[in-house]
Structure formats: C-alpha cells, structure tokens
Amino acid sequence: MGTLCAFAGTSAPAQAAKYAAIVIEENSGRVLFARNADSLRYPASLTKIMTLYLLFEDIAAGHLTLKSRIPVSKVAAGRSPSKLYLKPGQSISAEQAIYALVTKSANDVATAVAEKLGGSERAFAKRMTRKARALGMSRTTFRNASGLPHSKQRSTAREGPPCHRHAADFPNI
User: What is the CATH number of the domain that holds 135?
Assistant: First the structure.
C-alpha cells in the first residue's frame, strides 16, 4: 500500500491543538490519519514544492532548460537562511536551482526562481496561487516562493497531497 503524507506548519509542536497532519493512501485517496487537517497554517515547505512544480512546468513547456541560467538579484541574495549565500549578479542553472531547493531548501534560490519565472516574486506568488486553485487547493494562498512566514500565506494539511502528487507529473526532469 503506497501512502502519501503531508504536514502543514505548526508554531508550537508540543501543543496538540497547534499540530496539523494528514496521511492519505495514494491509490484510493482514503484518509488513514488526520488531525486538524483543515486548519489554516503557514504552508512552509509546501511552498517550495509549488515553486518546484512551476519550474518543472516551465521546463516541460520549453520556456527554459535545465541549463538555463537563473540570475540572482539583490532581493534574492538578501533572503534569510536557509540559503546558498549567492551574491547579486551571480547566476545558477535551473538544474542547480532544483537541487538547491530540494536539498538545502534555499530561500535565495526560491526567490531567484520566482523572479526568473514571474518577473517578480509577487507576480510569481500570484501564479502559484492560481496553480493551487487549478490543482483543487481552494484554501491555499501563496505570498512568496520560499515559504518564509507571511500573515496572508496559508494552506491546510489536507491541501498538501494534491501538490505533492502533481509534482510527480514531470518524471523526466
């Protein structure tokens, strides 16, 4: 039996009321476990999954390749850790960006990707929210590409699995 697990952010893990989680059986969609699964939370790392999804989508559409360069702006370089400590004016390949997002959860890279794909992080966050709606994530709103806290950036544990599931839509990347 394959399972898919998603967790939304929590501000106080020791307090059960603050904890939100869901475990879903992937093939049937049956909920195996849920706690506060519909409570709005900061989406945290779910945000980077959506950033990766849109990067994969643009690569698959031919808008860029794994070798395409992603420039680093002053804004991107200024993001707080976790980061690669890239400097303004540097660039990294889309492939390097994927690895940095997956392995380091690099906020500077997430912002650079957002600026490359959306023109600005704000415009990219709007695109992320539109994609969330298209994937059935009706209560998810993104305000940045990194998952850094923002008072209006929200999701639920229940809305995580559709994003994770669709990230696998790009097996060749």
Answer: 3.40.710.10
Q: Which of 163, 170, 167, 160 is nearest to 5 (CA)?
A: 160
Regarding pTM above 0.90, the answer is no
Convert the pLDDT of each residue in 122-152 to its tens digit. Answer: 999 999 999 999 999 999 999 999 999 999 9
Q: Which of 127, 119, 67 is nearest to 94 (CA)?
A: 67
Selecting among 48, 83, 116, 131, the annotated active-site residue is 48
Annotated catalytic, 28? Answer: no
pLDDT at 12 (0 to 100): 42
Among the options 39, 45, 73, 93, which is catalytic? 45
> Is 48 part of the annotated catalytic residue set?
yes
Catalytic site residue from 105, 131, 146, 155 = 105
Query: Domain range holding 73?
Result: 46-152
